[in-house]
Amino acid sequence: MKSVSRTLITLTTALSHRSINPNPKTLISATTATVFLRLNSTTTLTQQPTHRNHSFASMAAGDSSPTFAAVEKQFDEFRHRLEESGSLRDRIRAVATQIESTTRMMHSSLLLIHQSRPIQEVLEKAKTQIDVLKELFSQLAEIVRERPGEYYRYHGDWRTEAQQVVSLFAFMHWLETGELLIHTKVEEKLGLNASEFGLDVEDYLIGICFMSNELPRYVVNQVTAGDYDCPRKVLKFLTDLHASFRLLNLRNDSLRKKFDGMKYDLRRVEEVYYDVKIRGLASTGDGKGEQTVQET
User: Fold this and answer.
1) DSSP symbol at 197
2) Closest to 238 measured CA to CA, from 228, 246, 227, 248
3) Three-state SS for 175?
4) How far is the C-alpha of 7 from the C-alpha of 105, rounded, in Å?
5) Which residues fall within 8 angstroms of residue 277, CB to CB, at 6 or more apart?
């Protein structure tokens, strides 16, 4: 306000000296009043935003405090959940690593079958690991049961190991019986309960596809060892298995790719069988193994 008064005095003095009005006081008074009103209005407009800014700042400060507290509480809960999930996942991976190590030992024992070792001798050595796997899957089930309803959230941490187990069990079962090991029998061997912690169907199917990869090599080695009837038996088994897979509506995913690999396994076995038959080495069978698979 002092600056406004000084401005008014300066303007009044200037007008009193320069005016040619015979009644300068009237002019000075009118001019002074006009200038005062303009300055007063300008000062008021300049000061008003300051008060509004202070009010807005106080409102923002008052509103942000409880909102930030709620956000902080939420992210603190997220932190606890992620830590618990990470700890549980580490425990699952530790068991899965042991399963992978056990299946590797079992697989190395089964590889001796390609060296024309007696089947029972090879199987007895591999079967010693079944109880170990059963115990490990029991531990895995106990861990996963701690988080009910979240089976598939952690399923990816052991699915590869489960597929390998199915492959080995199915191959062993086929060597003994010449038949396919069904899904429920695998769960029984591992001591799994389908209602609580079962074997995923896709893992079972992929494991069966892995098992079929071993058969062409097995056929070639058996023919080399003088077992000329082996190609016919394997061809019949693979033909029936391939036909069963054809009943499934497989999409363009990993299971479909594994199934496509089975077609090549079947073709390789067919080639060995036809080669043996052309040379007159194949024994007379029921002829069912001579079925072929058309390209899809």
Assistant:
1) B
2) 246
3) helix
4) 100
5) none
pLDDT of 94 reads 96
Q: Using alpha carbons only, how large is the chain's radius of gyration in Å?
A: 43
Instruction: List the Cα angle 29/34/39 in 5-degree steps.
Output: 125
Which residue is associated with the tokens 């590889």?
A: 111
Look up residue 16 and give its two tokens.
Answer: 């009193």
Give the three-class secondary structure for 156.
helix
Question: Taking the model in full, what pTM does it have?
Answer: 0.73
Q: Which of 197, 133, 141 is nearest to 169 (CA)?
A: 133
Phi-psi region of 118 (alpha: psi -120 to 50; beta: other; left: phi over 0): beta
**If the chain, 296 residues long, is cut into consecutive pieces of 10 residues, what is the mean pLDDT of each piece?**
49 46 46 46 48 47 69 90 92 96 94 87 93 96 91 93 97 95 95 89 96 94 92 96 93 88 94 92 58 44
Q: What is the DSSP string of 105-127?
A: HHHHHHGGGGGT--HHHHHHHHH
Give the model confidence (pLDDT) of 213-238 as tens digits.
999 999 999 999 999 999 999 999 99
Q: Are 143 and 88 in contact (CB under 8 A)?
A: yes
User: In angstroms, rounded to a whole number, what is the distance separating the alpha carbons of residues 220 and 127?
Assistant: 25
Q: How many residues does the chain have?
A: 296
> Within a 10 A sphere around the Cβ of 218, how many other Cβ atoms?
18
Residues 158, 276: Cα–Cα separation, whole Å: 41
Q: Which residues contact 263 (CB under 8 A, 6 or more apart)?
A: 242, 293, 295, 296
Helices 230-245 + 254-278 axis angle, to 10 = 150
- What is the number of alpha carbons within 13 Å of residue 64 lying toward its C-beta? 6
Cα 238 from Cα 291, distance rounded (Å) = 10
DSSP H stretches of helix in the chain: 2-18, 24-110, 119-127, 130-144, 151-154, 159-177, 183-190, 201-224, 230-245, 254-278
The rounded distance, in Å, linking the Cα atoms of 200 and 205 is 9
